[in-house]
């Protein structure tokens, strides 16, 4: 089994500096082809690979226990700490690894913060659920508005651009009866 060199809090030469807190990084992708050519991407080394990315927080609990020469995903140590930590939550070797950033308040209380996934060697930040819903709702409203605009222009072409009050009352009466 190949091992990677231990990294200190300052990072490895060539590693991206950490982004400021609160920075949305869902639009970027990280890939280190040299590392991927050197080491196999499996459940034992995926965290070392993730630590090279700009998504990694060097002040996390995983880094603190790594500096003590303990594996950074050792739950027996992480469960005793409080603060930000990373866990590999789902694995479909060798193509997909899901890494969750979470805040640990106690051994039992954990609050998920962000999710990252490693897909065939490329690391991405998963979008926030609120952003996904916002985009879907915005797209739906666009198409509803477009449908009303098209219907309105078609009605104007056949002479029903402005509904006559009697026609509107008849329509409402028939609709209520049904």
TrEMBL record:
GO molecular function terms listed in the Swiss-Prot or TrEMBL record: transcription coregulator activity
BP GO annotations: regulation of transcription by RNA polymerase II
Pfam families: Med6
Keyword Transcription carried by entry: yes
One Gene Ontology cellular component: mediator complex
Compartments where located: Nucleus
Keyword line: Activator, Nucleus, Transcription, Transcription regulation
Predominant cellular place of this UniProt entry's protein: nucleus
Role: Component of the Mediator complex, a coactivator involved in the regulated transcription of nearly all RNA polymerase II-dependent genes. Mediator functions as a bridge to convey information from gene-specific regulatory proteins to the basal RNA polymerase II transcription machinery. Mediator is recruited to promoters by direct interactions with regulatory proteins and serves as a scaffold for the assembly of a functional preinitiation complex with RNA polymerase II and the general transcription factors.
Subunit structure: Component of the Mediator complex.
Homology family: Belongs to the Mediator complex subunit 6 family.
Name of the protein: Mediator of RNA polymerase II transcription subunit 6
Gene source species: Lithospermum erythrorhizon
């Amino acid at each position: 089994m190949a091992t990677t060199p231990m990294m200190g809090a300052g990072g490895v030469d060539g590693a991206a500096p950490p982004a400021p807190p609160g920075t949305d990084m869902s639009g970027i992708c990280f890939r280190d082809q040299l590392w991927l050519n050197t080491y196999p991407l499996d459940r034992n080394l995926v965290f070392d690979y993730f630590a090279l990315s700009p998504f990694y927080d060097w002040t996390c609990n995983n880094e603190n226990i790594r500096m003590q020469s303990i594996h950074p995903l050792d739950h027996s140590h992480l469960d005793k700490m409080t603060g930000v930590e990373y866990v590999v939550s789902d694995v479909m070797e060798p193509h997909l690894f899901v890494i969750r950033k979470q805040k640990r308040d106690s051994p039992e209380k954990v609050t998920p913060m962000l999710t990252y996934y490693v897909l065939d060697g490329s690391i991405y930040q998963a979008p926030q659920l609120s952003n996904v819903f916002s985009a879907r709702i915005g797209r739906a409203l666009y198409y509803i508005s477009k449908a009303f605009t098209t219907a309105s222009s078609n009605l104007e072409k056949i002479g029903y651009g402005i509904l006559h009050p009697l026609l509107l009352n008849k329509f409402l009466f028939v609709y209520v009866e049904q």
